[in-house]
Amino acid sequence: MEPIIPLTIGVLASLGAEAYLLAEWRNKVPIRIHVNGTRGKSTTVRLIAAMCRKAGASCIAKFTGGAPGWIDTAGVEHIWVRRGPARLSEQMRFWRLAARQGVQTAVLECMAVDPYLQWVAERRITKATHTVITNVRLDHQEVMGADLTQIACSLANAVPVNGHLILGAEEFVHVFAPIAASRNTRLSWVTAEMRQELRQELGGDWSAGFLENAATALLAAETLGISAQAGREVLQGWQRETPYYPALWQRRIVWVINGLAANDPESACMLWDRLPSGEKAVALYAHRADRPLRLRGFLKALEQETRCRELLITGPIAKQHETLRQWQAEAGDRTPWAVSAVGTQAVTRRITALTQQSATPIWLILLGNELGLPPECRTFVTPVTEYAEAKDAT
């Protein structure tokens, strides 16, 4: 039993040294921006970082949406190399990188979902000067709470101490305000009028999701002392998102609207507005085994969507058949569409039949999460590089 005490002392010494190094790296970066929220975190990180660079500040950033990556001081994106599964401790590597590069500003996407880990991410690792909460939507209900108020409280674990909190919407100011006040943190939020003004100014067909992120980034930039002109110049030069793209299925064109990053029902419902007028789409929901509550949320959100032709469900769905049966019994004939295929083999057969029966390319909206997308359907996340090539393949 003798080694226990020396081993314990050694572990504590190691943890103490780690905490010392983290503090040393972090404190070399005077402006630390922590971006949390349900949707739009990665886009908001990119926008804030671009606005900081536009204002002349040296800035690096890290995002985790989709494939993790980081952005250098020149605005070039790089792959973030992980040593195994995603872990919160990788944020320490980011602060070491920021310190070594001697930057004034760092923008970091919160990668924690569990409320306690969100607290650790802010209070132990980041200690932000500014925290941005993009929005509050129904997702990760298994760990963050059953309703929007509980989810807002979970996200509030990232509220900084003696900092500035920026909210992307005003709906939950009443939840965040007392928490911010208790931590001596200033509070600012985006109003509906601010978003509408930005929509009119930018014009074009920007999605509602992007406009929300853009308005939030502009407000964050304002709290940093960045001029409104610099922020708007970034937005005016921003590459317009592609609302849809062509993909190939057995040498036939399929028009795809990729909503796999919008894996909460509210965000997913916005995707239907990307459809050209008069078109209907097949919805393909990719289920993720560790998010069992999402399926029911998506089914409820889609109930009255008249632009949906039918719904296909794939992924590890075995444990969700009872959920599906219950929803079908409750929905009855209310829905203008039907669940036409469940499971990988049935889904692939159905897509093949649809493409063969249609004289024109079908429209497909991807919903859910990419982790639930089987290998057979991963062709839908890869755009055909040149539409001319795609047409040649049909």
How would you describe the overall organization of this protein?
Helix 12 links the parallel strand 11 and strand 12. The relative contact order is 0.10. This protein is α/β, with parallel strands linked by helices. Helices cover 43% and strands 18% of the residues. An 8-stranded mixed β-sheet has the order 4-3-2-5-1-6-7-8, sandwiched between helices. It has a 6-stranded mixed β-sheet with strand order 9-10-14-11-12-13. The protein is globular, with a radius of gyration of 23 Å. Helix 2 crosses helix 10 and helix 9 packs antiparallel against helix 10. The protein has 2 domains: 215 residues, UDP-N-acetylmuramoyl-L-alanine:D-glutamate ligase; 149 residues, Protein-Tyrosine Phosphatase, Chain A (Alpha-Beta Complex), CATH 3.90.190.
In brief:
This protein has 394 residues and is α/β, with parallel strands linked by helices. It is built from 15 helices and 14 strands.
Helices and strands, with pairings:
Elements: H1 4-27, E1 31-36, H2 41-54, E2 59-63, E3 69-71, E4 77-79, H3 90-101, E5 105-109, H4 115-126, E6 130-133, H5 141-144, H6 148-155, E7 164-167, H7 173-182, E8 186-189, H8 192-202, H9 208-223, H10 228-236, E9 245-249, E10 252-258, H11 265-270, E11 281-286, H12 292-302, E12 308-314, H13 321-331, E13 339-342, H14 344-357, E14 362-368, H15 387-393
Parallel strand pairs: 1-5, 1-6, 2-5, 6-7, 7-8, 10-14, 11-12, 11-14, 12-13
Antiparallel strand pairs: 2-3, 3-4, 9-10
Helix pairs in contact: 1-3, 2-9, 2-10, 8-9, 9-10
